[in-house]
Design goal:
With 565 residues, the chain is α/β, with parallel strands linked by helices. 25% of the residues lie in helices and 23% in strands. The longest helix has 20 residues, at 3-22. The two termini are 39 Å apart.
Length: 565
């Protein structure tokens, strides 16, 4: 049986087992009791027609229709008004001890957690409600690939779904077009069904994504960022590749990846995280096609990083997004992805990396920050600054972002895609792998604990439902600024989790004990593993207790005096 067949069979067996054990089933989504629309003129309560399915007012029409699976489609038209958002309120009384979990607009920043009623909390894309006393609950969310950005809020009066239809920081001009803004779906776990909150969120994610795009084999290997931090070369990458190949199981048909992160591109010699041109490497990387071939000959699959919307110098201003949208540092001039000319440029770059140079994995980064001008943790009050728009202001930002992702997908051919600083809910079905959270670290353990462990746990239900989830690297540097007793546990959990495992290892740091642990981890990660389950995730933001392959393990993420071994 091939690796791909093993993965498929394991996923199917897990799904059948979960369904039999928990009796979680699809729920019918009721109609809202109130609907609001927001345009340039303000916020307006819409009035329902007699059927309760059509709501009108202030030049806005919202049509709510059930599909064959009980989901609720939300269709919006506003022919004469720039439409900012639509809100639907559902009157549902929930027990006071109910706990709630939602997703994030893009990456997580160590802030996922189960909490009680917090009315101002944004639960992006979906939420699960769980009553621990009766071991029952439900989940509600919008299907992946929506034409709007969605978030829920929950209070004692019920829950509200907000669908953001903006174009940049202004209302979208739909003209005569009716927008299918979102399709809402739900799942339920009744009392005494033997359910768990984890199985509920898993079932919800599977219900929200009809056609995930998954790797055909377990993904593992190296990425040079968390020990090199952009200071690398052709020769160093080949040394890294040789190390990855030596750590992998001998005789396996599933070779490890070696991913060249930021630092290869022409302008990277003057700084990191730069954009185009992507036509060649810099003086430290003189032969990008030759490097890919040499990495393959060393026994690894070659991968590469790119910032696809970073514009080349002297790009005409009419092809760029306005600088006024930026509210954070780290900005580069950014191609406007609403323009066909720019999408063609992105496609050409991706095709060069994969079709011409031969890289088998592309990690594309920074597109959320580049488009919105801020990081996900700064989006609590709004996704972007108000007042700016794309060159094409007739489509929603969500539609424009999805078209960008489709362009990258089509251009990549059979190469795997990792979305980093991307919107997972729009990349599902297009990317094989999605970074769950912000960067881990080879220098600071607290960053790895906060970003890595938190997002691995709370986005684990998305694994193999939306894509394969990547909780980022184990960074091992010379001198071990992160204590090995802590990093060893992070490595062990990732290897047993069933998710992709990437390590970022300075070859000079690989001593006997570290080599043995890496070899064991690669042996585990190179074959399919059951999805790990965080057991104490309702009590903490950093779960210590995990079920991995039917065995319960406890990790100590807080060792105050890590010792070298």
């Amino acid at each position: 049986m091939s690796n791909a067949q093993i993965v498929t069979a394991l996923i199917a067996a897990e799904a059948a087992s979960a369904q039999a054990a928990t009796q979680i089933h699809a729920g019918f989504v009721a109609l809202p009791d109130r609907v609001y629309g927001v345009t340039d003129a303000g916020a307006f309560a819409l009035l329902p027609a007699s059927d309760g399915e059509t709501w009108n007012g202030a030049g806005i029409t919202v049509r709510l229709l059930h599909d064959e699976r009980g989901g609720l489609t939300v269709r919006v038209s506003a022919p004469g008004e720039p439409l900012h958002r639509v809100r639907l309120h559902f009157a549902v009384r929930l027990p006071e001890n109910t706990q709630f979990l939602g997703d994030a607009m893009e990456r997580g920043y160590g802030d996922f957690e189960w909490r009680g009623f917090v009315p101002e909390r944004r639960l992006s894309w979906y939420f699960a409600a769980w009553d621990k006393g009766s071991a029952s609950g439900f989940g509600l969310g919008v299907e992946t690939g929506a034409a709007s950005f969605a978030h829920f809020s929950v209070d004692q009066s019920g829950y509200t779904l907000t669908l953001d239809t903006q174009n940049g920081g202004t209302g979208v001009r739909l003209g005569e077009r009716e927008l299918l803004a979102a399709t809402v779906r739900g799942v339920e776990c009744p009392p005494a069904a033997g359910g768990s909150a984890f199985a509920l969120v898993q079932a919800l994610c599977k219900a929200l994504c009809r056609s995930p795009r998954l790797p055909g084999f377990p993904v593992y290997g190296g990425n040079n960022w968390y020990y090199a931090y952009g200071k690398s070369s052709h020769e160093q990458i080949l040394r890294d590749a040789a190390l990855m190949a030596s750590l992998a199981p001998q005789g396996t048909d599933n070779a490890p990846f070696m991913v060249i992160d930021d630092g290869w591109q022409p302008r990277a010699e003057s700084g990191v995280c730069t954009g185009a041109p992507h036509t060649h490497g810099n003086s430290r990387f003189p032969d990008m096609p030759g490097l890919a071939q040499a990495m393959r000959q060393a026994g690894t699959r070659p991968g590469i990083w790119i910032r696809p919307l970073g514009a080349a110098p002297e790009t005409p201003e009419n092809l760029l997004l306005p600088a006024s949208r930026m509210s954070d540092s780290g900005a580069v001039e950014t191609l406007d992805p609403s323009l066909a000319e720019n999408l063609a440029t992105v496609a050409t770059d991706i095709k060069r990396l994969t079709g011409e140079w031969g890289y088998e994995l592309v990690k594309h980064d920074f597109t959320t920050f580049d488009i919105f001008g801020r990081w996900g943790f700064a989006m609590t009050e709004g996704y972007t600054k108000p007042g700016w728009h794309f060159n094409d202001n007739t489509r929603t930002t969500a539609e424009i972002v999805t078209d960008l992702y489709r362009t990258i997908r089509s251009a990549a051919g059979n190469a795997l895609l990792i979305g980093c600083n991307t919107v997972g809910h729009l990349g599902a079905g297009l990317f094989e792998i999605q970074r769950t959270g912000d960067d881990t670290s080879g220098r600071e353990w607290e960053r790895t604990r906060k970003m890595g462990v938190n997002t691995l746990a709370f986005r684990m239900p998305q694994h193999d439902a939306f894509f394969a989830v990547d909780a980022d690297c184990v960074g091992i540097m010379r001198g071990e600024p992160v204590g090995w007793s802590l990093n060893r546990q992070w490595l062990d959990l990732l290897a047993r989790s069933g998710t992709p495992l990437f390590v970022s290892v300075d070859p000079d740091a690989v001593t006997g004990n570290i080599r043995a642990a890496l070899t064991e981890a690669f042996a585990l990660a190179s074959v399919a593993q059951p999805v790990a389950e965080p057991l104490d995730w309702m009590q903490t933001t950093c779960p210590r207790e995990w079920n991995t392959g039917g065995e319960e393990r406890v990790y100590d993420w807080y060792d105050p005096t890590p010792q070298k071994e």
